[in-house]
Amino acid sequence: MTYMTYPKVSIIIPVRQINQNLKEHLPKYQELDYPDFEVLIHVDQKKPEPSEQWPKVKIIYQPGVSAPPQKRNTLAKEARGKILAFIDDDAYPDPNWLTEAGRWFSEEKVAAVGGPNITHPQDNLWQRVGGLVWGSWLGSGGSGLNRVEKMGKYKGREINDWASVNLLVRKSDFEELGGFINQYYPGEDTKLCLDINQKLNKKIMYEPEAVVYHHRRAIFIPHLKQVGAYGRHRGRFAKIFPQTSRKIGYFLPSLFVLGLCLGPIAGVVFPPLMFAYLLCVTAYCCLLIYSGYQVYKKSRRLAEALLVIPAIFATHLWYGIMFIKGLLTPEYEGLGNY
After folding, report:
1. 229 within a domain of the structure (yes/no)
2. Element (H, E) at 86
3. Cβ atoms within 10 A of the Cβ of 198, count?
4. Strands 91-93 and 212-214, sheet pairing
5. Of 55, 77, 200, 250, which is most buried with the most CB atoms under 10 A?
6. What is the count of structural domains for the chain?
7. 71 and 137 Cβ atoms separated by less than 8 Å
8. Which domain holds residue 39?
């Protein structure tokens, strides 16, 4: 496919105000190896300064619109591109991002493309460990590896749920579905992907070369705050959208929490269960240590290897608790802004 057949792309970034992340990342968009694109930014807290201007960038200031889904919908209406490329302010694209993802849109049945968001090269130790949790088999249950790493063996596979930090959607399909639904934040992208598959009967493709580099939330508090939001949204979706959110992997952390709490009680009531409980806890601890070893084997950084062990444990614990809370959340209740 030649450049002449590539559609215009509108890159969409929701943000509170022009921040340091944006100032560092916007020059990266000028390095994109793609002939026709625009960058649209929505701010609501502080009007941009006259000096805050970049080539191909349009900034929309709209006070009172604070939720990311609303901002993305507003920018989508302003977009002149046939493809909407969603990304966050704390991420920047690889030069080949649009080129690699854009190839898929020559297929009419493809409505969207998702690519990995790799840990930002400038992240500090605490942020890198947050990324290592998502990138470990134990930390993510194996389900998140292609989201945070370039998994070439998955190239061309269909996916049914992808994060809007690196999601490209055909504008006509986005509009047909009515855009993002704010009440489902931070799972509005999950709902959009579900609707693409179910309502439009179209595909979402995985493209490992369509990479963005993403700042991770540092362990422990910022990381766990994000994990908790994901857990609560997934628990809620397991109840109302079983098509993509009722997978056993999403329930395992909650079963782990319940087992951890109820196991000793069951062991007192029925002593043989105490042996099984201790055996399971020992096996889990061994898996944690093995995960730390795998990190050290790959990076040769002892601090990362040691920190990833409690980080994975805390991730499982908090996700499991918040997943249960999500199951108990009324369907109509929104999860708040960012």
Report:
1. no
2. strand 83-87
3. 13
4. antiparallel
5. 250
6. 2
7. no
8. 3-116+151-216
How far is it, in rounded angstroms, from Cα 170 to Cα 84? 6
Gap between the Cα atoms of 104 and 110, Å rounded? 7
Judge whether 134 lies within some domain.
Answer: no
Write the CA distances from 209 to 94, 98, 114, integer angstroms.
9, 10, 10
Q: What pLDDT score was predicted for residue 1?
A: 43
Helical ranges in 12-144 per DSSP H: 20-29, 68-78, 97-102, 125-135, 137-140
Give SS3 for 245. helix
Distance from first CA to last CA of the chain, Å, rounded?
39
pLDDT in tens, 30-53: 999 999 999 999 999 888 887 678
pLDDT in tens, 183-218: 888 889 999 999 999 999 999 999 999 999 999 999
Q: Is 103 within a domain?
A: yes
Instruction: Kindly state the tokens that stand for 197.
Output: 């598959």
CA dihedral 69, 71, 77, 81 (to 10 degrees): -90
Decide if 240 is inside a domain: yes
The residue to which tokens 């049914």 are assigned: 160
Model's pTM, two decimal places?
Answer: 0.91
